[in-house]
Specification:
The complex is a heterodimer. By secondary structure, chain A is mostly helical. Chain A is built from 28 helices and 7 strands. In chain B, β2 and β3 form a beta hairpin. Classes of the chains: A mainly alpha, B alpha/beta.
Chain lengths: 585, 430
């Protein structure tokens, strides 16, 4: 943890070190090595494990490998420049002007938020902006992708994707911390997305031992809930609407939904904790499926349904498969390269998060009847990502290195803002991002060295930081600031309790005070010049220097209030409460 | 209020309408009234709503209260246990002896003793009794209170339209969004969280102005104009709320000691009193949550204890609303997620039982002094006139003059009726 944090704090300083000693980051720059590794993984992939298992057991002759028709795949050839070329071609056709490139200050803040889920500190910003290295942006991208906070940030994102739609009303049963830390480990190891999805879909066992099994508990181990969410989360396809009737606007039939649900027919979860202890759920996959769906005309009557995947003209599956085989087979159908929705769903989510605009919106409602933005580009990214073996960092790296990602933001009220990918689009931060950014902006861990004075962090602060990834109270904070990440950005607008928290809460009130030991108090003490205090505050909270107009407004304010400490408290309050602090831009 | 050049988006008091849902919210009928500006339309609608002024108070009995030890006693039988029955102000109606004050106001109360449902799981049944739907991952159905708030809340009112009092959170607003999320008051004796200004009012307003003038020259010019508008709209609503004179409705200290004593100096009594104050101030929907009804052990003792706060709180709420002329336009509902088994278990408790249970209603045009439906003598089922959850929800709609067939649209574009079927219990309305 100490190493991680130092990485975050020292930030850009690391980059310089990296160049000097490439061996520290090992494979990061060793492209060829990485490529050959990926190629090796692809070869392995040709005969997926489950197919082999099922073939060996040959349950009753009905099985055939779902990937028999797999296209040959090579390593991905897509470069960021190709993405830009395609985007510019489309924009030229509509004569849409593109936004200016981001400044270094804008870029580093955006990248920190997107990858690490928090804002950069003033030291990192200054050093990055001051660096004259030609490829410093690409280097920073690689450094942050390898940072442990990248894994934590995205594990929280996916935790929320599931938690916010969970039909399990009993929160104590669903061990989200276990899911989050399991997923963070997967991301940290850069496990391919198809492997992660497979582990989640087919997970069994105790949730305190296998975090992936939390998914089944979140879905109350119910076949229809699991089927609906597996489809929504991993394919972006809302087949669950067909649970009760044929889908009104998509091609899915009710029968197809229940055939997919039949894969999850045997799943059960039960509490195995000692009496009086917090629940620990154990998920089991069950024996041969006996899935039934209610007859619409007579709800008392049950119709037996055998498992069958709803895409790719998949064959019907024997009902005699054991539960764990059924789950693995379901995972295989979902992640199969011949099923384009698996790649589209993930690529679209990442793209939407990074660009503020997706191929599809909402991110969990794709499907054959929806028309994506830039379909050609989307297919290019998806097929290359698939060729990479669903390499998550590869996908991020290709997008982050585009000029399109690195364009400045515009309001959707402008032509460039309305046209996808002509600019980046601002959005409100997720709850975790706000929490971690507040921690940094207000120096809640008392990392006094961050303000650029060179003073070392206190031993106490260090210890507190060791223990947790921020001050206590993330859970409480998220109860007020949490938001479903599948919600379209335009619909995430903040709430009155959130405004009340930032305006009046005891924490904010205490931490913005100019007391001798507070961040602001220390700053005022060590910087007699108001201009430099203002500059550091702006860098800390908003990740940029103040504009001339802002300097004037604040100087006037200081003059009118007539009390330096009080005026700066108000300025800090205004910055923490500002839209800009709460936004990704 | 602080000066504003950019606060021109649809302002409301819960948060701000997103551009999308705002457009969605304009009905075909309203859109047909060309020539009227948005503000005019809102004014027209608000006037119409104010005429109705209907409100609702839900007294939520979490855990599933025993019908046999409250509104449907069966003294002298194995099923009835030790609970005794007492006569009420309405000849022929008896209730459990734990509720002497309720007995006195029975003229204003309608009891339904034939509620019936299938769900015996706390969380799922709580969701169902709060939304009229069973939980599903597909659609997050809105809390019924959020629906009422959305339908009846006056857009110009500066407090939240829906307030939930008690330690537990209520069911979310689901597809209706943050705008109609219940505003929580965990402890009725304390002001709601973070509503007390951290600095004197003058300095608070000064800070808001500073924030505003900094953003107008900053983020607005670098792509954030829409975000800033939305943010400031919420800040304006929030500031309106914390600076509103209506905020004093949250302070029970201004009630005289006699009134407070009548409601009872208990969390539930305080909750009922606060509910009345909030409705009086103009809040549309208030839920008062009380737990402690999951009586698997010693049901008799537990109900007696619960009743000692419910009886004075509920009865005083009814008589107080009545004496202030507010009862006719305030629907008061007492219910939990299910009832409890007629069989008393070895721990002298009763287990979950959705097949037949009781609820109580008063005000809101409901005809009091009557019992609707009946359980069988052994309490094992409905003897007469089954009432389902959706029948009950449809009845609330009738009382509050809300169209139960109105559809709200889920993010996937799926229409969700306020109540999916069901028939209002016509006896309730004379």
């Amino acid at each position: 943890m100490a190493t991680n944090r130092r990485l975050a704090n020292v930030g850009f300083r690391c980059l310089v070190a990296l160049l000097v000693s490439l061996s520290i980051v090992g494979g990061l720059f060793a492209d060829d090595a990485a490529k050959s590794k990926k190629a090796a993984r692809k070869t392995e992939k040709k005969l997926p494990e489950i197919v082999r298992t099922v073939e060996e057991e040959d349950v009753d002759g009905q099985m055939r490998p779902v990937s028999a028709s797999r296209k040959p795949k090579g390593p991905p050839s897509l470069e960021s420049a190709q993405i830009d070329e395609l985007i510019l071609k489309e924009l030229a056709a509509t004569k849409t002007p593109v936004s200016e490139p981001t400044t270094d200050e804008e870029f580093i803040r955006r990248l920190y938020l997107d990858l690490l889920g928090k804002i950069p500190n003033p030291v990192s910003i200054r050093e990055f902006a001051g660096s004259r290295m030609r490829n410093k942006r690409a280097l920073l991208i690689d450094t942050l992708l390898a940072h442990p906070d990248f894994a934590d940030n995205w594990a929280r994102y996916w935790r929320d994707v599931i938690a916010y739609r969970s039909p399990n009303e009993n929160d104590r049963q669903v061990n989200y911390p276990a899911f989050e830390s399991w997923l963070a480990k997967e991301f940290a190891a850069n496990k391919p997305w198809d492997k992660i999805a497979t582990e989640i879909i087919s997970a069994t066992g105790r949730t305190d031992e296998n975090g992936a099994a939390v998914f089944a508990v979140a879905e109350t181990a119910s076949a229809v809930e699991m089927a609906g969410e597996v489809s929504r989360v991993f394919l972006g396809v809302q087949i669950q609407c067909a649970q009760c009737h044929d889908h009104p606007s998509d091609p899915w039939k009710r029968q197809q939904f229940h055939e997919f649900a039949a894969f999850f027919g045997g799943v059960k979860s039960r509490n195995v904790a000692e009496k009086g202890q917090p629940p620990v759920m154990q998920v089991s996959a069950g024996g041969p499926a006996h899935y039934t769906m209610p007859d619409l005309k007579n709800p008392e009557k049950k119709i037996a349904v055998a498992p069958r995947f709803f895409l790719n003209q998949a064959p019907q599956i024997s009902e005699n498969l054991k539960g764990d085989q059924r789950l693995k087979l379901a995972a295989q159908y979902v992640t199969d390269p011949d099923n384009p929705w698996f790649a589209r769903s993930f690529v679209n989510r990442v793209w939407y998060s990074l660009m503020g605009e997706g191929f599809y919106n909402p991110v969990d409602d794709l499907g054959p009847t929806r028309t994506p933005n830039s379909p050609e580009l989307m297919e290019l990214v998806c097929s290359n990502w698939e060729a990479s073996g669903y390499d998550i960092r590869w996908l991020f790296r290709q997008i982050l290195n585009t000029a399109a990602y690195q364009r400045s933001s515009r309001s959707t009220n402008t032509a460039a803002g309305r046209t996808p990918f002509a600019s980046n689009v601002p959005s409100r931060l997720r709850g975790d991002q706000i929490f971690d950014s507040l921690t940094h902006a207000l120096d809640l861990q008392h990392e006094r060295d961050q303000v650029g004075t060179g003073k070392a962090a206190t031993a106490k602060g260090e210890m507190a930081a060791e223990k947790s990834k921020g001050p206590a109270g993330r859970d409480q904070f998220l109860k007020v600031f949490g938001v479903d990440p599948s919600t379209p950005n335009d619909d995430i607008l903040g709430t009155i309790p959130q405004a009340l928290y930032l305006m009046n809460s005891a924490l904010i009130t205490r931490e913005i005070q100019a007391k001798p030991k507070s961040m602001l108090g220390y700053l005022l003490l060590t910087h007699p010049d108001n201009r430099s205090v203002l500059e550091i505050l702006y860098l800390r909270v908003l990740g940029r220097r103040p504009t001339d107009r802002e300097v004037r407004t604040c100087s006037n304010y200081l003059g009118n209030v007539g009390n330096r400490a009080e005026a700066f408290e108000d300025i800090l309050w205004a910055l923490v409460n500002s839209t800009e602090f709460l936004s990704r831009r | 209020m602080f000066e504003s050049n950019i606060l021109k988006v649809g302002v409301n008091h819960q948060g701000v309408v997103s551009r999308r849902s705002f457009l969605r919210g304009i009905s075909l009928g309203a859109a047909g009234l060309t020539g009227l500006s948005f503000t005019d339309l809102m004014a027209v609608q608000a006037d119409e709503l104010r005429k109705r002024q209907m409100s609702c108070i839900l007294l939520w009995m979490g855990g599933g209260p025993s019908q046999l030890d409250t509104w449907d006693p069966k003294p002298g039988t194995d099923t009835g246990g030790d609970t005794k029955a007492i006569a009420t102000s309405v000849p022929g109606i008896q209730i459990a002896s734990h509720f002497p004050k309720m007995a006195k106001v029975m003229k204003d109360v309608a009891l339904i003793r034939s509620m019936t449902n299938k769900e015996g799981n706390h969380q799922r049944a709580t969701y169902q009794l709060h939304t009229g739907y069973t939980p599903s991952g597909t659609v997050k159905h809105p809390n019924y209170g959020s629906v009422v708030a959305a339908e009846l809340g006056d857009p110009k009112f500066d407090l939240p339209h829906i307030v939930c009092i008690g330690r537990d959170d209520t069911t979310p607003a689901g597809i209706l969004g943050v705008k109609y999320e219940a505003f929580r008051v965990p402890d009725p004796m304390k002001p709601p969280l973070n509503t007390e200004l951290a600095v004197p009012t003058g300095r608070y307003v000064r800070r808001l102005n500073l924030m505003h003038s900094l953003e107008v020259g900053g983020f607005v010019n670098s792509g954030g104009v829409d975000r800033v508008k939305e943010h400031h709209s919420i800040y304006q609503s929030t500031a309106s709320m914390v600076l509103s004179p209506h905020m004093k409705a949250f302070n029970l200290d201004s009630e005289d000691s006699k009134t407070r004593a009548a409601y009872g100096e208990t969390p539930f009594g305080h909750g009922c009193l606060l509910a009345r104050r909030l409705v009086q101030a103009g809040v549309t929907f208030v839920e008062v949550r009380m737990g402690g009804w999951d009586n698997h052990n010693k049901v008799d003792e537990s109900v007696a204890k619960n009743a000692s706060s419910v009886d004075p709180g509920f009865a005083s709420l009814i008589s107080d609303l009545k004496s202030r002329g507010m009862l006719d336009r305030t629907l008061v509902v007492w219910m939990g997620e299910f009832g409890r088994t007629p069989k008393i278990n070895p721990n002298a408790g009763r287990d979950h039982f959705p097949r037949v249970f009781s609820i109580a209603m008063a005000g809101g045009g409901v005809k009091g002094g009557q019992v609707i439906g009946a359980s069988t003598p052994d309490g094992s089922g409905v003897k007469d006139r089954p009432v389902s959850v959706i029948d009950l929800m449809a009845s609330f709609c009738k009382s509050l003059q809300i169209d139960p067939k109105k559809e709200n649209i889920s993010p996937q574009g799926r229409p969700i009726k306020i109540v999916d079927g069901g028939t209002p219990v016509k006896e309730l309305f004379g």
